[in-house]
Amino acid sequence: MNKCIFQFWEESSDDNNSVPDGCSLHTTDIEFKNYVENLYSNRLNSEIPNQYSKFVGNSFDCFVSDELFERLFKSGTIRLNEVEKNNLIQLEEIFFKE
């Protein structure tokens, strides 16, 4: 059992619709902060794009399998789409403690 940071994401569009857009996993809060800063700094200007991903709510702790943690540890961050996120949770590769 390996502790990491979990963040939900959603995709928003200019017609005010939002759909779930997976999650990101991070080894530390600093990795999460760096990921978000890098993501937003890559936008060319201050205009909001027609379609974009944004994080939803606050990040929180989760636990991942050893295999997934090895992948995460190499890069500090893993971005999962909605299907990947749901599959890994169902397979208990990602899990949450109450």
Q: Report helical residue fraction.
A: 25-40%
Low-confidence segments, given as residue ranges, are none
Strand order of the largest sheet: 4-2-1-3-5
Number of helices: 3
Q: Which percent band covers the strand fraction? A: 35-45%
The sequence of SSEs as H and E is EEHEHEHE
How far is the N terminus from the C terminus? 15 Å
Total beta strands = 5
Q: How many domains in all?
A: 1
Overall structural class, as computed from helix and strand content, comes to alpha+beta
Give the C-alpha Rg. Answer: 14 Å
Write down the overall mean pLDDT. 92
Shape: globular
Biggest sheet record:
5 strands, antiparallel
Could you walk me through the main structural features you see in this protein, from its secondary elements to its overall organization?
With 98 residues, the chain is α+β, with helices and mostly antiparallel strands. The chain has one domain. 33% of the residues lie in helices and 42% in strands. The chain has three helices and five strands. The protein has helices at 29-41, 66-75, 82-90; strands at 2-13, 18-26, 51-64, 77-80, 94-95. Strands 4-2-1-3-5 form a five-stranded antiparallel sheet, sandwiched between helices. The longest helix has 13 residues, at 29-41. It is globular and about 40 Å long. The two termini are 15 Å apart. The relative contact order is 0.27.
